[in-house]
Amino acid sequence: MSREVYRHPEFEGCVQLARVRDHFLFNIESEGFYPPERLLLEAIKVMRSKIRTIREAAQSLLQDVSVVEDVEMDEE
């Protein structure tokens, strides 16, 4: 979180920095010329793909835990 805003007297009392738990910020960088509109759309596609991968991995882990719990219950 940048505190740069506090260096400017004209923003004194106008800005409050805080964290919001269910939000996040991300930066997009590119090399070469890429129109901003297209760059943003491509970045969103990449982010969605990464979220999908994480979601699938989490679901797989949950299934593995469920299988282990079922086996442990059968052994008792």
From TrEMBL:
A GO-annotated cellular component: RNA polymerase I complex
PANTHER family, alphabetized: DNA-DIRECTED RNA POLYMERASE (PTHR11800), DNA-DIRECTED RNA POLYMERASES I AND III SUBUNIT RPAC1 (PTHR11800:SF13)
Pfam families: RNA_pol_L
All copies of domain DNA-directed RNA polymerase RpoA/D/Rpb3-type, residue ranges: 8-50
GO biological process, one term: DNA-templated transcription
This protein's name: DNA-directed RNA polymerase RpoA/D/Rpb3-type domain-containing protein
Keyword Transcription: yes
Superkingdom of origin: Eukaryota
Species of provenance: Pisolithus microcarpus 441
UniProt entry tagged with the keyword NAD: no
GO molecular function: DNA-directed RNA polymerase activity; protein dimerization activity
Keywords assigned by UniProt, alphabetized: DNA-directed RNA polymerase, Transcription
